[in-house]
Amino acid sequence: MKYDVVVIGSGMSGLVAAAKAVSRKRNTLIITKGQGMLPLTSGCIDLWGYQLDNPKVFAANPFEEIRKLVLRNPKHPYAKVLDVLPESVDFLKKILQASGYFLIGNIYENRKVLTALGTERITALIPPSMVVKEPEKIRTIIAVGFKNYLDFFPEMFLDNLKNTSLPKGVKVPLTIDLGIPEALRSNHLSYLLERKEVLDRVADEINGTLTASGLKTGNYDESVLVVFPAVLGRDFDIYNKITKTLAVQVIEVPGLPPSIPGQRLNKALISYLRKKGAEFYHNSEVTGYTIENGRISSVAVKDSSNNTRQIEAESFILATGSFMGGGLLAKKDSLCEPVFKLPVVEYKQQDHEACFLTIEGMPFLNAGLEVDGELRPLKGVNNLYAVGSILAHSNYAAEKSGLGVALSTGYKAASLA
Amino acid sequence: MNITKQQMDALNNCLKCSICVDSCPVTRVDPRFPGPKQLGVDRLRIAQETGEQPNPAVNYCSNCKTCETVCPSGVLVGTLNQLTKGDLPRKGLGLREIIFSNNSILGKLMHIWPQAGNLITALPPVRKIMEKTVGIAAQAPMPAYSKTTLRKSLKGYQPVFTQTPKEVLYFPGCFTQYNKPEVGMALVKILAKLNYKVIIPEFKCCGQPSISNARLKDTRRFAEANLRILKQYLKPGMALLFSCPSCLLTFKEEYKNILGMEEYTEFSSAMLDAGEFLLKHEKQLAGLISASGKNILKLAYHEPCHLRASGLGTPGLSLLKQFGLDITPLEAGCCGLSGSYGLKTEKHGIAEEIGMNLKKAIAASNYREVVTECGMCSVQIKHLTKLPTSHPLELLAMMLKE
Ligand SMILES: Cc1cc2nc3c(=O)[nH]c(=O)nc-3n(C[C@H](O)[C@H](O)[C@H](O)COP(=O)(O)OP(=O)(O)OC[C@H]3O[C@@H](n4cnc5c(N)ncnc54)[C@H](O)[C@@H]3O)c2cc1C
Ligand code: SF4
Ligand code: SF4
Known about the structure:
- The complex is a heterodimer.
- By secondary structure, chain A is α/β, with parallel strands linked by helices.
- Chain A has helices at residues 12-23, 62-72, 77-81, 85-98, 154-160, 186-193, 196-212, 237-246, 260-275, 396-399, 402-416, and strands at 2-8, 28-31, 111-114, 120-123, 140-146, 170-176, 221-229, 248-253, 279-281, 285-292, 295-302, 308-318, 329-330, 335-336, 384-386.
- In chain A, the strands form 4 sheets. In chain A, strands 1, 2, 9, 10, 11, 12 and 15 form a 7-stranded mixed beta sheet that branches.
- In chain A, strand 11 (295-302) and strand 12 form a beta hairpin.
- Chain A is globular and about 75 Å long.
- Residues 351-357 of chain A have low confidence and may be disordered.
- Chain B is an alpha/beta fold.
- Chain B is 51% helix and 7% strand.
- Chain B has a 4-stranded parallel beta sheet with strand order 2-1-3-4.
- The radius of gyration of chain B is 21 Å and the shape is globular.
- The A-B interface holds A 1, 29, 33-36, 39-40, 180, 182-188, 191, 257-258, 263, 267, 270-271, 274-275, 277, 279-285, 301-307, 309, 324-326 and B 15, 17-19, 21-23, 27-32, 35, 68-74, 249, 252-253, 256, 268-269, 279, 282, 308-314, 317-318, 321, 328-329, 331, 353.
- Residues 8-14, 31-38, 40-42, 44-46, 257, 285-286, 319-321, 324-327, 339, 388-389, 396, 402-403, 406 of chain A line the site of flavin-adenine dinucleotide.
- Flavin-adenine dinucleotide (FAD) binds next to helix 1, strand 10 and helix 11 of chain A.
């Protein structure tokens, strides 16, 4: 069977590429060795975090900074996709909505999100469950932790809030004992909260605290903010239910990876793709390719018992990620891209003037593939595209640009493929 | 337990990202199971140096292999867990494990009078006794035995070939042999139309049940017998087809990775999922399919974990879609039953809880039927949803022109 588009990798860049391809009615196959980094992320989509001229200060308008960036660093992946950046974000919002998932925000405005540590993090697009709707009205903040859950400490969270932009108010820590003697993991906690009797119990305890503080009015009370760790279920059902039951403002705050909001976003994208007919080869690794008359005609795909078969397609999108995803390998004294053996640009701190971004360092993240204006990494070969964190000249950790670069490059490649 | 160098290297590839833990269906519903990373990777690394005893919690691993499928670094966590299980000191006779590991004997026994067998094993008092004595949960869904076996069904069947047929081998597996011979019959009929004669030697059980029941000695016995059969029957260029994804996975991977039987490597490119084989004959098959099959309405597709773990996509689903059926993949993860795992008293609750996800996904739309390749997944689906189930091969056979 021959496909129109084969996407290699199922991280954010591969999933968005596949989504764009199926929306163009392209017969699409995703071949993936494992999960991408998306389930590890906070579920917040970074576009650009800091001011170019003052990298210690948050950027208010990420699109503005990106526009400046591409003039200064025309090799940056964003320089290749500036034309489609706004529409790529709109596209993602639209397809997620079709899976009952929502993203709040836009490309012209960064937002502050509270984290499980009680600090603030800057990002662009966030799930509704992380939005503090009316911050200025808050008078009381209740932070809800769970006994034996070690990723969220209500006291510490509340204490750290003093350094944030949230109004000062009464702070109430609450630790709920669900009677689980073992250490609680986020995924188990999220499973428990999906059970009605557990959610009811949690709501009762919080309501008890509200009543004890004389705060229970019976009507919606926007002066109270209840904060959960980000464990409110695999879709937004739990968030909606608890918000309705408590009748106050509720948020969940992202913590250490892996994270439920990241998994939620991953799941929403995959379920969209499945509904639209994209096919998947899971646990399957692309190990080589065949080239005929200047076009990639097929890739060699290894199943779990090391058997290789050839899969043909019109176009191929390489979305294999950076070092963690397995798209780039660090050999003893060089870097390599193992599938197409493409040249990898290495990066040492002093190599490039772009090391104005040294907030978090990790210059090796800038290493990767160089592509032309249509995201093609191989000169003379028109049907191979490279997207996402495998691209050179971008450092997601320092720039706060990871999922933004992934989604916009994935979108553009699949618009062309 | 002996870990090969390759397995040790794979252990060292672990990034500690915990993606496997958060995807493990058992860890999600039961915190007593610390999960693939802690039990598999971390503990083994420590044990390699200290000789520390395995944690008995590893018995709660269902060998669904979700962890291996999601791991970005190719660590065979599920496989390592099965090896670790084999190292645990055994308590008592383990009658239940013996029964599950030798389910072909049970199949033969039940087939002396299958209707009576099904009736008796459905009686609540009998189930209570089974629960008390051997630890098979009274509430667990029991796979019903078919009125006839595949072997008997084939006796009365004579395909007509217009030209000299080519030959393929087929490994039906215990479930097709004793519980659902219709699947094997469907394959044989489709292949006859494609001018293939199907040879079904007297294989032993693949041994997957014995792997998850920590009776690796049984597995070896089966694997060695099956190897002798393969050497005798599999001629160069011939394919060995499987309709059950778990049997295929066991032949292709587990014999090598768990038993260290490298001899299977040379056959591994001949071993194919039946759907994969049919996909290679797609054009020819298209000419044999009648459009009337398209009247079958609104199907859901459940991808068995072991098919997903095999890394060969979903060929059965591709075929059905290609021939115009309205079929939607559920993407709801493991069904929970995992072969005999969910039949056990102490694990039945876990299996039910894992299955809720699938139940919810199926309830979300008005599906008429659920399609899946795995026999035990279909038992669980029927139990959870009361909907009929079928194997892609059965639907394809139904769509064949007369
Ligand atoms: C811990 C952590 C937290 C983060 N948090 C955030 C955040 O909150 N917000 C944000 O915007 N960004 C965040 N980032 C950055 C962001 O996650 C990444 O930049 C982005 O996800 C990269 O996506 P990708 O698709 O390029 O690659 P990846 O997600 O790495 O995906 C690569 C895919 O390719 C597959 N693959 C690799 N080789 C092969 C092969 N040969 N054959 C088949 N498949 C193959 C892999 O299995 C994987 O599916 C975070 C990163 C990390 C590590
Ligand atoms: S998913 Fe793989 S790399 Fe990550 S912790 Fe598990 S075994 Fe290690
Ligand atoms: S095989 Fe399945 S049950 Fe066992 S550790 Fe892996 S994911 Fe969990």
